[in-house]
Amino acid sequence: MREELNQGLIDFLKASPTPFHATANLAHSLQVAGFKRLDERDPWHVESGGRYYVTRNDSAIIAIQLGSKPVLDSGLRLVGAHTDSPCLRVKPQPELQRQGFWQLGVEVYGGALLAPWFGRDLSLAGRVTFSRDGRIESRLIDFRQPIAVIPHLAIHLHREANQGWAINAQNELPPILAQLTGQENPDFRALLADQLAREHDLVADVVLDYELSLYDTQAAAVVGLHGDFIAGARLDNLMSCYAGLQALLKAGNEETCILVCNDHEEVGSVSCCGADGPFLEQVLRRCLPEGDAFPRIIGRSLLISADNAHAVHPNYADKHDSNHGSKLNAGPVIKINSNQRYATSSETAGFFRHLCLAEEVPVQSFVSRSDMGCGSTIGPITTSQLGVRAVDIGLPTFAMHSIRELAGSHDLTHLVKVLTAFYNSRGLP
Questions:
Q1: CA 149 to CA 173: how far, in whole Å?
Q2: Which in 19, 202, 328, 381 has the greatest CB count within 10 A?
Q3: Do 94 and 171 lie in a common domain?
Q4: Distance CA 286, CA 43 (A)
Q5: Is residue 310 a known part of a binding site?
Q6: End of a domain among 188, 216, 244?
Q7: Pair 278, 413 in one domain
Q8: What is the distance in angstroms between the CA of the first residue and the CA of the last residue of the chain?
Q9: Do residue 32 and residue 91 come from a single domain?
Q10: Has 354 been labeled as part of a binding site?
Q11: Are 221 and 3 in contact (CB under 8 A)?
């Protein structure tokens, strides 16, 4: 099971270089499993026992399995994650010509660790909007091949580089696409039109706009002397999306189970498809009883917010509270913060810990050092929007927000097992 899950995650990461691709792949897996697609613009006719999914902005998805048991009695079992990861995104007018090279102007999305982007074989993927025969359409594209690179500056020209390097995002991050010859006039939209023709066999009249991200073409892999680790891009937080999907597909048909994968978590979640927007509540209100029943259902429900946690790095152990440092391959981590950066309470933490014990899944606790700031997740945002109780958990990870992160190769199995048990649990606190 462990090898199969890890390989499935590796395949999912490779096929999902952007939130758009991740959402499309999640939707495809749900469709194959018998979930019916709902369109927000159409009337909905849902029924007990039905399995549905809905997307918004092509970058966020909610899957719902309406159980056979009355939801007013048993509540909702929700698992939340997010589809986006820090990266470099292409600007609207990106063409740069410097020293005979064609480069792209880029903008940093989210809290990216920038140094690892240098010297990587990069490709480009995302969503393109264009006109064709008088109609406006959008398609996902993925160049797949390495078409760009951000070379390092040689140590001879920057002798102090190893003493600390303040990277200027405007000047130092534009990747090189090609070396120009003659009177070439780079046209990025023409390049996108060519890719649309190659990938989708269509001719666009005009490329109107796009949302495109650079990504590392090196595939994720199981690594280490004994295969102890998974290394790859976007483990934060596609690992949780994939685990939630696998658990939902294993869920029984009695309880009402929901998987929500929002976009824009890395930049604050304030959008129509982010956790600080109306997406989840609007979908739930269309699928659940109205009036007084809705808040009663929410009061009986629980959200597991799954987002990666910081593992203790052996070279930087002093960055952690000595009593609360999580370890790779030691199970999911309950994340706690008294200032509500995480939504965990003693009640919800106790329930999750009980689930882990019942399933013989190891479980850990994480609290930041008292003299360091704490990150956050969709957990507190979703609870404030919906009023649902939540526990924030995640799999321990090194190098979070790097172009290549590292997690334990045993932990995905642990997470899928406990999330499956959650979806099938007969009673919530």
A1: 10
A2: 19
A3: yes
A4: 9
A5: no
A6: 216
A7: yes
A8: 30
A9: no
A10: no
A11: no
Q: Which two tokens stand for residue 155?
A: 């140590």
pLDDT number for residue 325: 87
Does residue 47 form part of some domain? yes
Which of the listed residues 168, 186, 216 is the one where a domain comes to its end?
Answer: 216
Q: What is the mean pLDDT of the chain?
A: 96
CATH of the domain at 130: 2.30.250.10
Asked if 303 and 351 sit in the same domain, the reply is yes
82 marked among binding-site residues: yes
Distance CA 311, CA 304 (A): 20
Q: What is the pLDDT of residue 373?
A: 84
Tally of structural domains, the chain: 2
pTM for the model stands at 0.97
Distances (CA, A) of 32 to 1, 253, 370, 402, 420: 20, 17, 47, 33, 19
Write out the two tokens for 211: 């949302």
Nearest alpha carbon to residue 377 among 271, 247, 262, 273 = 262
**pLDDT at position 403, please?**
98
